[in-house]
Specification:
Elements lengths: L9 H14 L18 E8 L8 E5 L7 E14 L5 E8 L7 E2 L3 E2 L6 E13 L4 E7 L4 E14 L1
Antiparallel strand pairs: 1-9, 2-8, 3-7, 3-9, 4-5, 4-8, 6-7
Length: about 160
């Protein structure tokens, strides 16, 4: 059997080019195509409240405080608010208990089939830190809130 000598680096260069073309870029250079949605630091959060608001004006709805070492991310707010006496809901805001400035105001729609019914369904992106207590305020134009159901949805992140 006769050996064929490999001449210069031409053959080796051709082999290297073929290998690079087949293998592609190094793994460190490729973009990750996965997302870790089961990470313990991303816990789904959903909480609803059913307040009792016997007075006209402000109906405050308090949620549970954010636990130590966590941050609560609110991504959606949903409310059904029923007002007595033919009055309406002027504003719905989301804030933290004890703070004066609202973090978010939300659009209000009416239900044509049920007079006195006001609906809020809105995406948002608001953050609450450990120790803060989220609070929704629904301000009426005079009537009392006979019934309300408000739900906050999002996630809690471990810091």
């Amino acid at each position: 059997m006769r050996e064929v000598p490999i001449r210069s680096g031409v053959f080796l260069s051709a082999v290297a080019i073929v290998l690079l073309a087949v293998a592609g870029p190094a793994p460190a250079q490729r973009a990750a195509l996965t997302q870790d949605t089961d990470d313990d630091s991303r816990v789904p959060y959903q909480e609803g409240v059913f307040p009792s608001c016997p007075f006209a004006g402000d109906c405050a709805m308090l949620y549970s405080p954010v636990p130590a070492g966590k941050r609560r991310v609110i991504e959606y707010i949903s409310c059904a608010i029923f007002v007595t006496g033919g009055f309406g809901v002027q504003t719905v805001s989301l804030n933290s208990q004890g703070f004066r400035n609202a973090r978010g105001f939300f659009p209000i729609t009416t239900n044509g089939y049920a007079p006195g019914t006001f609906i809020v369904n809105s995406p948002t992106l608001l953050y609450f830190n450990a120790g803060e207590t989220p609070r929704i305020d629904a301000y009426t134009s005079g009537g009392t809130v006979s019934t309300a159901v408000c739900t906050l949805t999002g996630r809690e992140i471990t810091l």
